Amino acid sequence: MKNMYKYLKSAIEGESRTEKQHDLNVFKKSEELALKYGIKYDGKSFVPDNLELADATFEAGIELLHSVGVYCKSTEKVIQIDEEDILTSLNVINSLEIGRLKEKVTVNRRYPLSPIPPIIIGGPMGGSVSEENFLYINLSAVLENVVQGIYSGSMKQFCGEYVRPKSPLEMLAVLKAARNERLATKIGGREGLALMGPSTPTLPTSYLLVSSDELYSKYDPQEVYMDDLKIDYETLSKCIFHQEHGNHYISGQVPVFGGPCIGSAEGLAIIDVAETLQSKVLVHSSIHASGASHAATGSSSAKEILWASNLSSLAISRNMDYYTARYYWNAAGISTDMMFYETAAQAIGDTVCGRDMLLGPVGARGGIPDHSSGLESRFMGEIAQMATHLSLSEANRLITKIYSKYENKLINPPAGKSFDKCYRIKSEYDLEPTEEYELIYRKVSYEIMGHFPGEAF
């Protein structure tokens, strides 16, 4: 708590600055650092194989965080992060176990080209989910053996009523969502499977309401979300609560390429590193999740995002001890070949570059209800397992071929079908993908892995 108190004081007594000025400072400094450290995107590659470039990106991330600080939106002050605190945190890590009972999983610390696949967390991870399909979507992920945890979505209705953010009705919806998540693990015969989230709340009290042994225990990483190199009192309060109760919690940030802070792939890679350092030094989370997206497409699968995310992952996994995860925001809807291609391009890069945990995926950018399924999570896990046998250059070549399959569709992606249209649902104990959905999955799987006659890469 010592560092937390020091930085809380900084949030109160620090330099006054507008949010717009902070965004401009982050933008300018990240671009300056890209030039200073010789970080340059060639516009073609997806997986950098220059490890010196990765190390330079890490150094640039440290300098960015130290020089611009973290903006506290609650006080409109800048929290200055001591460089010594950053450096002393790099090689400090606590072992991480998630889940309970027979579903307990030890999260392995991965490095570039690690032979151990990343942890697979299924579910819509913050995407919109209808009340009627909420249980079934979570259950479809629970039923996939490759899935080692559930990151659920945001339930938008309660008893058919639209849930207004920050209203008392939200608390009832959050309780129902969390209970359905836990129920899904029991019905699927995997009680104790790690839950991550919750994603429905907007009120701090709603988050804390479900923090209990019954629902989100200390072994179920609970969500703490922040904007780009920013924080607020609500987030800091949740961090203090989780630290005091010994809970695991996951910090999440979704930097936007083309947003107010980020104008280049190089800048995005540096900011991604700086935000990971922010999470470890200031927030003290167990895991940091990044989900950079492209302003033009709303997806995490555009080429600039893939290169920058892979570069930052290489930089982090080589230079600090910390658990990292990545959100998958796909542009296409589920039950489309593009959705599978987007997932594959990301999972291959994340696996070879040392990411510890993969989250999702969710289709239709998470904005249209019910575009998540267990089949998508199964595919993500299988591709990650395959990618453990690839070198950086092999991964780059494979992603290049996969990306060509969907590059021209990112602006206008196929809509796909909602969960209840591509899963056959008879009851909680009898649901499975439709034959049409399975056929798309098998076709793309065989195509990527070289087993589909006449269409292998």
Structure description:
Belongs to the monomethylamine methyltransferase family. One of its GO terms (molecular function) is monomethylamine methyltransferase activity. Mean pLDDT is 95; it is low at 451-456. The protein has helices spanning 2-13, 19-36, 51-68, 83-89, 134-142, 168-187, 204-209, 233-244, 265-283, 303-319, 337-352, 374-387, 392-403, 419-422, 435-449, and strands spanning 15-16, 70-72, 77-79, 97-98, 105-106, 119-122, 128-129, 149-151, 154-155, 157-158, 161-162, 194-196, 222-225, 230-231, 249-253, 256-257, 287-290, 293-294, 323-329, 357-362, 423-427, 430-433. The strands form seven sheets. The protein has an eight-stranded parallel beta sheet with strand order 12-8-6-20-19-17-15-13. The longest helix is centred in the middle third of the chain and has 20 residues, at 168-187. It has two domains: 2-89, no CATH class; 97-259 and 283-449, TIM Barrel, CATH 3.20.20.460. The protein has 15 helices and 22 strands. The chain is of the alpha/beta class and 457 residues long.
